[in-house]
Amino acid sequence: MAYLDHLTIAVSDLARSRSWYTSSLGLRVEFDVPAHRATALQDSGGFTLFLEERPPDPHWKPSCILTFRVDDVASAHRALSARGFPFENPPQRLFWGYGAELRDPDGYLIRLWDEASMREKG
Question: Beta strands 48-53 and 6-11: pairing type?
């Protein structure tokens, strides 16, 4: 059986994205690869998200949605909103279940959910 070990996403500004993911979602820097303008970030479950800086391309659009499980989606929403992170959708029932949505600096949709709220309200 295979399992997903890591995911690489293209970013326009590595330093900005690195800061965003560490300060908003608490991902930790696993390692940097300066020669390739890349950083590996790890979540608390051991999954690695690679950020790889790519040259600007006016036709480029984010190509995936990143979904993160948090301890409490309402608390995460309050804390991030208080720190100025804008949400597209506060915690609510959405087509995929109960959670909140915001975008990273490159426009990737970030979904936040927690097990209890998803069970009760999803």
Answer: parallel
User: How many other CB atoms sit within 10 Å of the CB of residue 12?
Assistant: 15
The token pair at 11 is 């970013």
**38, 57, 108, 95 alpha-carbon torsion, rounded to 10°:** -150
Q: Cα separation of 34 and 76, whole Å?
A: 31
- The model's pTM is 0.93
Residue range 18-50, pLDDT digits in tens: 999 999 999 999 999 999 999 999 999 999 999
Q: Domains (ranges, CATH) in the chain?
A: 1-58 (3.10.180.10), 61-122 (3.10.180.10)
The Cα 122–Cα 28 span in angstroms is: 29
DSSP secondary structure letter of residue 59: T
CA–CA gap between residue 84 and residue 20 (Å, rounded): 12
Question: 30-42 in b/e burial notation, b at 16+ Cβ within 10 A?
Answer: eeeeeeebbbbbe
